[in-house]
Amino acid sequence: MELEVKIRGLMMDPNSGTPIIILKDINSDAMLPIWVGAYEANAIALEIEKIAPQRPMTHDLLRNFIVEMGAHVERVVVTDLRDNTFFAVIELQNNDGDVILLDARPSDAIALALRVDSPIFVNEDVLVTSRGMTESAQESSGKADAVSEEEWPDIIGEAGDLPM
Questions:
Q1: Residue 136: enclosing H or E segment and its boundaries?
Q2: Phi and psi dihedrals of 107, rounded to 5?
Q3: What is the CATH number of the domain that holds 8?
Q4: pLDDT at position 120
Q5: 120 near 107, Cβ under 8 Å?
Q6: What is the longest distance spanned by two Cα atoms in the chain?
Q7: For residue 139, is it within any domain?
Q8: Which structural domain, as residue segments, surrounds residue 133?
Q9: What is the pLDDT of residue 134?
């Protein structure tokens, strides 16, 4: 089963300094943290904050290409989590109604979804697997309690500013 999510936050991991996208299920309190690269986080932050670069960035170029080819993005789906790596697909539909699935990194798929205003989904198994990995990491480091929001100070933008 797939769950529709929205971006809840974009923040920095206080331990590693790596950007994290927090996706939240629209129908529950379930959240999924996805660690991403700095460039991808920047591309997402620019779109969240509606800052237009002087020249098209890679995700803008992809959006423009899709539109010029007569297709549109139906949705993006975070499909899997294997060996600490997230996987996603971009689901396109062309003029003939054919569905095209493109393998993508979740960060790229999310950056594109924001630019074309398409929904973002997560496979429920990914949430379960991620939750299990997080709990296992906390137990091995001696932190059995869930991480509180106070431990994540570097949120880019306010939660109310994000498309929910």
A1: helix 124-140
A2: -60, -40
A3: 3.10.690.10
A4: 98
A5: no
A6: 55
A7: yes
A8: 2-144
A9: 55
| Cross-strand bridge partners of residue 23 | 7, 32
Output the pTM of the full model.
0.81
- Take residue 33 and report the two structure tokens written for it: 């943290």
Nearest-10 Cα torsion for 115, 91, 42, 127:
130
Mean pLDDT of the region 126-149: 59
Into how many domains does the chain fold? 1
With respect to residue 40, please indicate whether it lies within any of the assigned structural domains: yes
What is the per-residue pLDDT for 12? Answer: 94
Give dist(CA 94, CA 92) in Å, integer: 7
Residue 153 covered by a domain: no
Is residue 19 one of the residues assigned to a domain?
yes
